[in-house]
């Protein structure tokens, strides 16, 4: 008599989604009543400043559209490469080429944005996504390297340009500096929510039919055009008139000459590297040793955890027991180190791994707005884009070395 071994596919409990949803909602809607000031009984009221609310909502709308575009390509990327018959080695090469493009070209987009204006570079971001969508529609023999380069450059722009543009416009329109904190954590919150929405939208578009990829490219083109229209009709900006030599001297004085900015840049670099390595290794780690899991159901748990962390940020800096932003970073990075150490040096079951990875993203959701707040305090607005893009260069080098080590 044969023995039948049943294999089960692990998937998150539905209660986890419910917990994350209600925890985020409770954190957002209860905060105004628990803040130290007790002066904001209505969520995001800010003294009934209608001009600020219009400014914030218009920016978050554009930022959300950009996040959806980023999310669509990231969800479809590996599936698309597999449908073309790309091997694992070819996928790794495409990733390496993308990181190399981000290192040697994307690094200097921040300096370019400081010189010519953030709005123009944000438009370049949309144009890159538009080109990728059109390339996939019209090219008979598509090159995965072309798409990888364009999307990596777009991701580099996304990491700094929208935030810098928002901060500059916030100050130019005369809004209070303290209410920037809400926009910072809302950026992380909306970006994570849009990435979840991108996954659902991409799955709905594609289903199990690879031939629907043309519909997917058309959708990406449509979103890119909408974003271009919003950006073109958005806030006006006056790029700085300083020459490149004057900009370089200011950069050397305020960025290279300030130890606080150096420390902030390295903190951002470490976070960027850890996030990049996480998204490369999380799926192979979970399905190691032949284990099976619904990865598509686990992915929203991570982003939901990041939303929870971002919604907890105002509690930490303005709640009943307010902490300094620097303390939030110390605690956040410490927990990240502990979580990754457990994963690296001890074998864990899938449920424990998912819980640890969720803790990882809760800390990421706290750290991202904390870094943005410190950049506002220590980095001049006219140098912010260059500082942010240059700080991403070391982790890009580290990721390329990681790939080279894995190949060897």
From TrEMBL:
Mind telling me which InterPro entries this protein's record contains? MFS_trans_sf, MOT2/MFSD5
Q: Provide an example Pfam family for this protein.
A: MFS_5
Q: Which GO terms describe its molecular function?
A: molybdate ion transmembrane transporter activity
Keywords attached to this Swiss-Prot or TrEMBL record, sorted alphabetically, are:
Membrane, Transmembrane, Transmembrane helix
Q: Gene3D superfamilies of this UniProt entry?
A: MFS general substrate transporter like domains
- Signal sequence bounds: none
Q: Which residues form a coiled coil?
A: none
GO cellular component term, pick one:
membrane
Q: Where are the transmembrane segments?
A: 16-34, 55-76, 91-112, 144-162, 183-202, 214-235, 261-282, 297-316, 328-345, 351-371, 383-403
- Write down the superkingdom of origin: Eukaryota
Keyword flag Oxidoreductase: no
> Is Membrane there in the keyword field?
yes
What is this protein's record name?
Molybdate-anion transporter
**Naturally occurring in which organism (per UniProt):** Quillaja saponaria (Soap bark tree)
